[in-house]
Amino acid sequence: MGAGQGQSTVNRYECKYFISPKFIPQVRDFIRHFTVPDRHCQGDPPEYSITTLQLDTPALAFHNAKVEDYDSRIKLRVRTYNEIGSAPVFAEIKGKFRDSVIKSRTVIPFSEWNADLIYSTHAPTFFKSHQQELDFYKFRRIVWETQARPALLVRYIRESYIGLDGQYLRITFDRQLEYCPYADWSSFGSGKSWYPMDSAEMQNSATSNAILEIKTLHDVPTWIIDMVQTFNLQRNGNCKYSTGIWSEALFAPVAEPRESTLQFLAWST
Hints:
With 269 residues, this protein is α+β, with helices and mostly antiparallel strands. The chain has helices at 24-31, 61-67, 115-119, 130-146, 222-230, 240-249, 259-267, and strands spanning 9-19, 35-37, 47-56, 72-81, 89-97, 100-108, 149-163, 169-180, 195-196, 210-216, 234-235.
């Protein structure tokens, strides 16, 4: 199960950095005095896999807001963990204002997640709290108002740690980033082709990197500042979803473009 299962709404700060895989063991050793493995992870190092369905408007407004670096923007995404079907689905609204992020997520049983759940007007009965129900209806309302639809799938392996002191603090390393352009509401890419997006070219970098994320609720602890300085980490606003969109757009000029590429082109006209 993914991290944050019990959280409905979180307001936090996020920073992302590219990091060479060869430096991860050193950073892992640095943070072991301040963190513990996320309890949802398995193995050594502690990891789980994430598959995310990204929704966007017909004109790709959410992607374009990232491209234009708007101070205020949102994402709609549907996330599940590990083997498809083994965990619930989490419908998420992720809003960002500068460095501050507010995210709401609703837990939905995997068997209940489909397009009908979004487009019908019936009231589901599986929510475990009133707040979860309110968050779902907010998600569904935004989908209706923006005409959002499945745009792209993203998946990766996440190594995750949480703070020792009980306050919200999370450090993660994401690797094996892939995208799937054949997105629908409920298959999560099962039986589809996936394409890598962590090459040096896709990251506009000299080498292929993992993505280090630091997430806190309040001011960044001094030891994290020391870590960033010690390893000379360079902040990067990498967006996995937008990287997948850019990668797929490279196929637009070919004689027989993929069906998904034709869909992207149709949306943007």
